[in-house]
Amino acid sequence: MNQQKALLEDSKNYLWLPFTQMTDYERDPLIIESGEGIKLKDIDGKEYLDGYSSLWLNVHGHRKKEIDDAIKKQLDAISHSTLLGAANVPAIQLAKKLEQITPKNLKRTFYSDSGAESVEIAIKMAYQYWQNKGFKKKTKFVTLSNGYHGDTVGAISVGAVDLYHRVYGSLMFESIKAPFPLVYRSGKKNPDAIRDHALAELREIFQSRHEEIAGITMESIIQGAGGMNIMPKGYLKGVELLCKEYDILLIIDEVATGFGRTGKMFAVEHEDVQPDLMTIAKGITGGYLPVAATMTTEEIYDAFHGEYEEMKTFFHGHSYTGNQLGCAAALANLEIYEKENLIEQVQKKIAIVKEGLDELKDLEYVGDIRQLGLMCGIELVRDNITNEPFPWKERVGYRSTLKMRELGMLTRPLGDIIVFMPPLASTEEELKQMISIMKQAIEETC
Ligand code: PLP
After folding, report:
1. What's this model's pTM, rounded to 2 decimal places?
2. Which domains does the chain have, with CATH numbers?
3. Interval 82-99 mean pLDDT
């Protein structure tokens, strides 16, 4: 047996892949061996454009020299020592840097290893903040329909993507569901009216239950895994004002939207919103290593100060929290944003993508195209006049992305929504190439 075949067999015999029906994998296996720029190469030497930024996190492409070098340099000092009770050098430097680039009220960084964990931390922190301040009844969380915050038990409890969550229903704690101001398929044309209606419903919930609500957990300007749904202008700002009015903590999840993905460093900047807690992950290391963080205000931090026996300590921390290699990678990543003036550079690419996607709008099976910066969703439908979806079991989205793979581009769908989320470093030519692959795949699959 040659080496590639042996690897294929071993992958089927020993691995269990996340969020993957293994029957699909066994039918169409793929093993990535290397990457360079925005291209990934499999064990047979076939190249793929990274159309989903290796699951929404790669920024500068793979093998970015500055990040490679920073990790190597850090290896020569130390790979890891615990952050429990002892700080480390890159963790301090990164926390200082994060304070400078996030909304100005956010000062403290609490590290973790994944987006889901950063959300777990945010909800535990919000809950305990109110407990420490003596508001013992404030224990509930409001969450928006179709929200996604990760797959751990706490994160799914404040999430609402039915497809992912219904299996684990009885494990979850209950949160209060508020409607997301969904424009597509709402039957209403006016986004302002949709926004006002959703805000009015949220106000009603806050008004009647604020004494028991600790916080609201929501994504920033665009929902990712829930379907690439963009909030009508002014909705997020409206939620911020309601939170202030009713003394409810605003927990913003920037795991997917952070680090330039939407055309601003953080999506909250689109509406000048200052959350009480903000979760970040994915792009923080440029897509290199698992680092995440929950940022918060000095006021929340202060509520955890006291003598040990007062039990105000924040009881959370994992073995690898604040890992030095990860923090060094993140620092190098953030330096590149400055050196390359990345947020400004990316504006041109956003315009190129918009122009390219506009050409897909008229395809027979494209119902809607939603784009915020370089976060895009192309919704495939059976009928683009009535927006009737394809039957779920036909798996049109999945089959389209398999076709894209064949044509040299990787992405993962959300049901029948094709996710297009290229690395910020993609060139004009690469962006156009990926859009053309998506077009061909949609035409040939639907
Ligand atoms: N929050 C949001 C908004 C996400 O999109 C995701 C993942 O896609 C998560 C949280 C979970 O992040 P992770 O996969 O790093 O746990």
Report:
1. 0.98
2. 31-63+341-445 (3.90.1150.10), 67-339 (3.40.640.10)
3. 98
